[in-house]
Amino acid sequence: MSYWSVVESVLNDHGIQQDWMTQHPALKLGRQTGRLRCRDYESLLLMALQAFGQALGVEAGLRGYPTKHGPLGVAFMSCATLADAMQLGMRYHPTRMPYYDMQLHTSPNAPADWIWVDVHERLHVDGLEQFGKLSALVEIATLIRTLAPVPRDQLHLYFTMAEPDFFHRYQDRLPPCTFGWPVDRLAIHIDALSARLPSANAEALKEACAQCDAEWVRLGLAGTWRERVLSHLQDPTLAPRTIEQMAARLCTSERTLKRQLQKEGCTFKSLQDAARLRAANSMLSDRALAIADIAQRIGFDDPAHFTRAYKRWTGEAPSAVRAALFEQQSPGLRTLASHAN
């Protein structure tokens, strides 16, 4: 919700107050929980762009202060130098910017006194391409200049898009910008990286990083790709059912997820089958659950499909396995169960 509140503040400051801003169900829920689902955030942004125009990307980026990013923003402010803050951002940005990959690097073909932050689209959303690139790069530049007194000419923004008609209105508020570049990029002069942050605090940094690490684990971003997928398959009732849904949950593309799992010698289907079998075996020991209930709980809409899958996994039908488990009980337990039934 902190991300949407920035967009909402732009709309309000420009006198754009429409019914959907107060009546939208996702916003009502978001104000109660403090969170918006990505799909709801996307639909709200599309409506906001219709009301305001593509300049919304620059406006939102110019308001991208550290406080917008919660514990990560506190961590930024608590770093000793801008270089430390940049490295921290590269580490934790997947928890806050699921739509983009960022790469911090230098190039032998570039002047030695500049480094680059390249921004690549990870998840594509039709209609949000220009907004995303403008807001992401402008926001990074805004964060840098908020954290430390970096001169304007020590930053340079590059965009793959053509220069928008409205952009001249913002030139005095932004670093130099170049359009029609091969990659979306922020260039930072090496002198800026040594800038010391006036808000540095080692203890606050330690605490904020602990919270960022907890968020990293909660989102399933820790460990190998196999471990990350398995962490989201532990509860079959909540687990993504397709690799497309799992890729979205992990803030990556389906293609990347397939490639990474192949490198680790597994597939999404094999991990999903293993998780479903484990959950099914646990539920089969509970006679209060019908086979159809178990099938639904682990992600099968049709009990017959579950039975065929279970036979493929184990060579036996789930009803036969359940019967065998029940036969292993003591005579006293069987008698008690029969009276209960």
Q: Which structural class do the helices and strands define?
A: alpha+beta
Spatially, the strands of the biggest sheet line up as 1-2-5-3-4
Mean pLDDT: 87
Order of helices and strands: HHHHHHHEEHEEEHHHHHHHHHH
**Radius of gyration over all CA atoms, rounded:** 26 Å
**DSSP strand count:** 5
Overall geometry:
elongated
- pLDDT below 50 for ≥5 consecutive residues: which ranges? 330-341
N-to-C CA distance: 50 Å
What portion of residues is helical? 55-70%
Portion in beta strands? 5-15%
Oligomer description = single chain
Number of domains: 3
- Summarize the biggest pleated sheet: 5 strands, mixed
Number of helices: 18
Report on the architecture of this protein:
The protein is an alpha+beta fold and about 350 residues long. It folds into three domains: about 1-50, no CATH class; about 55-220, no CATH class; about 225-335, Homeodomain-like (Arc Repressor Mutant, subunit A, Orthogonal Bundle). About 55% of the residues lie in helices and about 10% in strands. The chain has 18 helices and five strands. The chain has helices at about 1-15, 20-25, 25-35, 40-50, 55-60, 70-80, 80-90, 130-145, 190-195, 200-220, 225-235, 245-250, 255-265, 270-285, 290-295, 305-315, 320-325, 330-340; strands spanning about 100-105, 115-120, 155-160, 175-180, 185-190. It has a five-stranded mixed beta sheet with strand order 1-2-5-3-4. A hairpin with an 8-residue loop joins strand 1 (about 100-105) and strand 2 (about 115-120). Mean pLDDT is about 85; it is low at about 330-340.
